[in-house]
Amino acid sequence: MDSILALSLEAMQAGMARMDRAGMNLANAQTAGYKREVMLANFAQRLQPADGAAAPAATAVHLDLRQGTMQTTGQSLDLALSGPAWFEVATAQGNAYTRMGNFRRDAQGRLVTAQGQPVLGTSGEITLPDGIPVIDVQGRIFESVAGAGQARLRGEPVAQLRLVAFEDGAVSHRLGDGLVAFDGSPRLADGETEVRQGYLENSNVRSADEMVQLLQTLRHFESMQKVALAYDEMLSNALRKLADNP
What we know:
This protein is of the alpha+beta class and about 250 residues long. The chain has two domains: about 5-65 and about 205-235; about 70-200, no CATH class. The protein is built from two helices and 19 strands.
């Protein structure tokens, strides 16, 4: 394919992908714990390989991991994270990670996500104590004194949330229901993140920014489409003139 047409097509495909990302972000602007997706260009990959082979894809999807604001709910099993860590969750496909902390107690007394997947602690699945549990900023879970709603001052924690982090730039994959998988191994995020009981983290999407991104991308897409159409018309005119002058 002609290089100019190929570049125009690549630019339009990248524009469509950016519009998809912006649309998804807007749809999740009110989803607790949601991290917006962004398309990033890898300019090194735009260089044509020396052997003439096709260059690999020059854009990739990344999560914007900036902290969202906190909203208070007053619910004892609503948890928010202030810092870079993730909650670890057991699923049928393996462990996954989430910042969506609207957890609940299942029929077996376990701490689970809204969809019923067990939330993991440092010793495996977490079985909650009777009554209203108290969870401190380190993710330690205590029984509450009957009628007082406070952690026992001298009691030992019955469990501790497993909070993990990943290296900067780790490739992520959305699994649905607020769950994310990462390439690479997690590490314990000791001391890097605080747990806030009775809060949820808001999405870090700003709707106005996403609307601006949509409009800019649409204008760029239209420009690239005009370039492709103009170049195609120029080629057609050239071929017609050649045919008229054998």
